[in-house]
């Protein structure tokens, strides 16, 4: 997907996340926000896969114990959700590794436990 379309899609996702946050507020479990975002994706006809298994290729061998990002959206970006006190460097490192292993270029890290959701969003392009 070209960068312009990726940017538009990420803006749409951020808008949906903000709507969820405005409705529910911070402090719920990550799984609640995950299901609400899945509902919004379906409602807006946004193609996504929830917690898809992504194998790790190690020395040419596919290792099935890979990882499960929260969402792969449009086969083009990873959306990783958190509900923690604050985004930590380890969360960003996790998303960077997910992007590297999956071969995708854009990732969103969204922390729903932020007072203002915009302060809990990290966008990473590789």
Descriptive labels:
single chain; 126 residues; alpha+beta; two-stranded antiparallel ribbon
Descriptive account of the structure:
This protein has one domain: Endonuclease, Chain A. Helices cover 40% and strands 28% of the residues. The mean pLDDT is 94. The chain is an alpha+beta fold and 126 residues long. A hairpin with a 2-residue loop joins β2 and β3. The radius of gyration is 14 Å and the shape is globular. α1 crosses α2. The strands form two sheets. The protein has a five-stranded mixed sheet, sandwiched between helices. The protein contains three helices and seven strands.
What does this entry show, briefly?
By secondary structure, the chain is an alpha+beta fold.
């Amino acid at each position: 997907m070209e960068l312009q379309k990726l940017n538009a899609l990420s803006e749409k996702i951020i808008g949906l996340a903000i709507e969820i946050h405005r409705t529910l507020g911070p402090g719920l479990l990550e799984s609640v926000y995950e299901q609400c975002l899945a509902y919004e994706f379906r409602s807006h006809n946004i193609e996504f896969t929830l917690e898809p298994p992504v194998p790790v290729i190690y020395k040419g061998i596919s290792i099935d114990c890979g990882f499960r990002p929260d969402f792969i959206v449009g086969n083009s970006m990873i959306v990783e959700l958190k509900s923690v006190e604050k985004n930590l460097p380890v969360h960003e490192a996790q998303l960077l590794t997910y992007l590297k292993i999956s071969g995708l270029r854009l990732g969103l890290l969204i922390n729903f436990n932020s007072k203002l959701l915009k302060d809990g969003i990290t966008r990473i392009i590789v």
